[in-house]
Amino acid sequence: MTAPAELILLPSLRARVGAKGGVMLTQKYLDGAAAYARAWPGPVTSLLRPDNSTSWDMDAIEIDPGDYSRDGHAVEMFPTESQALATRLSNAALVTRRWRSPESMRSSAPSPGVARTWSRAAGCTGNSSGRGCA
Q1: Distance (Å, whole) CA 102 – CA 106
Q2: What DSSP string runs through 58-77?
């Protein structure tokens, strides 16, 4: 039997380092990603880029990416090497850099809010804007 197809989210939200060494993310982001996971038929993973700047988000919470899982949503840090990123994305069914509602993933109509989406991202050499995936 084949493993479920993974949805990978590449949010613009950056993961700030927390006081306990984990990462700070907004509750709103985590709630939205969990909604994706409830709607998607396989695993959902957010790949987060680190950021050392100060955040003033009022709903930020600290999580440990290695131990976090909610409704099938996992969190990982963004690979720093290009080859590691290509390898990580190679088995994903869908990679998206913008949010779209979980309901729209169930319909066949495309969502106008998705600017860059890659199917079978192994090559990930370009997209509709002509730029690469990183």
Answers
A1: 7
A2: TTEEEE-TTT-EETTEEEEE
- Under 8 Å between Cβ of 122 and 85: no
pTM of the model: 0.69
- Note whether 8 and 47 are within 8 A (CB): yes
Residue 27 pLDDT more than 90?
yes
88/74 Cα distance (integer angstroms): 14
The three-state secondary structure class of 95 is: strand
Q: Exposed/middle/buried for 25, CB within 10 Å: 0-12, 13-18, 19+?
A: buried
DSSP 102: H
pLDDT digits (tens, 9 = 90+) for 78-124: 999 999 999 999 989 988 876 555 555 554 444 433 334 444 433 44
Q: How many CA atoms lie within 13 A of 37 on its CB side?
A: 17
**Domain assignments of the chain as residue spans, ordered by start:** 6-106
Q: Give residue 30's pLDDT.
A: 93
